[in-house]
Amino acid sequence: MRQILNEVTERIRERSAPTRKAYLQRIEETLKRARGSDRMGCANVAHAFAAMPENDKFRIIAEKAPHIGIVTAYNDMLSAHQPYEVYPAIIRDEARKHGATVQVAGGVPAMCDGITQGEPGMELSLFSRDVIAMSTAVALSHDVFDAALLLGVCDKIVPGLLIGALNFGHLPCVFVPAGPMSTGIDNTTKSKVREKFAQGLCDRDELLASESAAYHGAGTCTFYGTANSNQMLLEAMGLHVPGAAFVHPHDGMREALTRESVRTVLSNIQGRRFTPIGQLVDERVIVNAIVALLATGGSTNHCIHWVAVARAAGIIIDWSDFSKLSQDTPLLARVYPNGTADVNEFQNAGGPSFVIRELIEGGYMHADVSSVVIGGLRDFCKKPVMFDNELTWIDLPEESPDETIVRSPRKPFSASGGLRLLTGNLGRAVIKTSSVPEDRMIIEAPAIVFHAQEELLAAFERGELEKDFVAVVRFQGPRANGMPELHKLTPPLSVLQGKGFKVAIVTDGRMSGASGKVPAAIHVSPEALASGPISKIRTGDIIRLNAIVGTLNALVDQDQWNARSLQTMTEAERNNNGHGIGRELFGGMRGNVRSAEEGAVTWL
């Protein structure tokens, strides 16, 4: 294994020793109890199974058959989650074939950032992760289950389900994906239409037609954003049926994979294969997830979400760990917005299986970890196929089927991963570098300060941004307004960069993978509302963003900088972010939330 991989893992293990030990002790204490239906009072048991068929009640109580709880993110508004409507019936049918029983333990909310983008509802998005985690806990709190299947795909849903599941770390758990939608218009064409609309070169009808051709059916969006990064990370953590991530919802193999998830979780319940999720997800597994993220140029949102996931398992990580691993992790995939391929093309070129195999063989991942399948992580290096109507797995080609999409470490797209930690007198931030042009890795330009993305968009429309500048968009952190993603800023900034201007964005908000080719120092911590130095910046200050050495500074005389007061949100700005579209209900979360680098968690 690589030296840096071991060093970072050991540093995390030492840092996490007290909290991890306490977490594992809680699991051990929970495992000493009798099964739920044997332990609970008769009235409790009767309530739990009242609506079940009599033969299922008999199996649970008399035969002590395994009982599986489903936690589902099903709704038919999200294309990625609409396929889950039929999953409980499939799971129930497969479980009965193996003498087991199933109940839908509960549902969790699932919102779409694509729908709420640029709207007030987006300010609930990040906090919805912790709502999902709590909803998962509520579902499983009936405490009658021997294992759980988690049904979810998209941005906050998978991290929320995983955090919730880790709080029931004594249960074996398997995640059940639904797959990406079929390829529509290519993402490059879609982005060009967005840029045309931003310049007033096409009308709303043309833009809507383009968007509808891109987002047109069941499944996840086909670009490599947070949702599809989730699936890559779950594969790298060994929490899926191997190769399940990117099979289309209507592919015949999808049902076979879903049925296999039932057999897999049942194999984890008893005997030598007993594999509760809290013991499975250790420091090495968290590191493997980070490496997979870096090797594929995945979503920067996971610099927040996986910090929270790790904390749920008693493991403490920070952005220095991501940055250190990035220095030694080769970039092995080019998927939009880091390339032109979509996730279907990525899958056809070998997908997660190819990347995981190459990382293991190169010593970049821990291969000696547990997973939900007997063969451990190496089973995730194979491709699922249907042969004579049976699901099986085959070896991948030795060489990449398409080197424009996936490569081996011998010939990577880049010797380092697509992420850098930035430090300096503006605090700590991250930047996704995997698609930033080499001549834009260093930007030095005057700041233009905005307190809302709408202010920047309005300035663009007035033609005031036709110059070199660094857009400082502050009061976008979790305490200020829930840390919405600022995707709507990408088209105008891309237009300006395309005209030859040197532009960048510095924000305490999020941009996920949407920052693309525009240099974006995001998640700046401490945030402005937490007295972060980003609140000292004034329009006209020279900002220097250096993604090569990893620095972010305001080039202001030190005495002048020290003497500056912190600008604060006005009462009007605070009220605007705290009311309407349900935002009042999340005031407690905004008040209690930790920093982005601490996972923006609200439950510690």
From TrEMBL:
Q: Which cofactor does it need?
A: [4Fe-4S] cluster
Listed GO MF terms: 4 iron, 4 sulfur cluster binding; metal ion binding; phosphogluconate dehydratase activity
Q: Name one GO cellular component term.
A: cytosol
Dihydroxy-acid/6-phosphogluconate dehydratase C-terminal domain residues are 405-600
InterPro entries recorded for this chain?
6-phosphgluc_deHydtase (IPR004786), Dihydro-acid_dehy_C (IPR042096), DiOHA_6PGluconate_deHydtase_CS (IPR020558), ILV_EDD_C (IPR056740), ILV_EDD_N (IPR000581), IlvD/EDD_N (IPR037237)
User: What's its EC?
Assistant: 4.2.1.12
UniProtKB keywords: 4Fe-4S, Carbohydrate metabolism, Gluconate utilization, Iron, Iron-sulfur, Lyase, Metal-binding
Q: Which Pfam families match?
A: ILV_EDD_C, ILVD_EDD_N
The entry's free-text remark on the cofactor is: Binds 1 [4Fe-4S] cluster.
Ranges for domain Dihydroxy-acid/6-phosphogluconate dehydratase N-terminal: 66-373
User: In Gene Ontology terms, what is a biological process of this protein?
Assistant: Entner-Doudoroff pathway through 6-phosphogluconate
Query: Part of which pathway?
Result: Carbohydrate metabolism; Entner-Doudoroff pathway
Q: Where does [4Fe-4S] cluster bind?
A: 154, 221
Q: Which reaction does it catalyse?
A: 6-phospho-D-gluconate = 2-dehydro-3-deoxy-6-phospho-D-gluconate + H2O
Looking up PANTHER family in the UniProt record yields:
D-XYLONATE DEHYDRATASE, PHOSPHOGLUCONATE DEHYDRATASE
- Report the sequence similarity comment from the record: Belongs to the IlvD/Edd family.
HAMAP family reported in the protein's UniProt record: Edd (MF_02094)
Function in brief? Catalyzes the dehydration of 6-phospho-D-gluconate to 2-dehydro-3-deoxy-6-phospho-D-gluconate.
UniProt name for this protein: Phosphogluconate dehydratase
Please tell me the species this chain comes from. Pseudomethylobacillus aquaticus
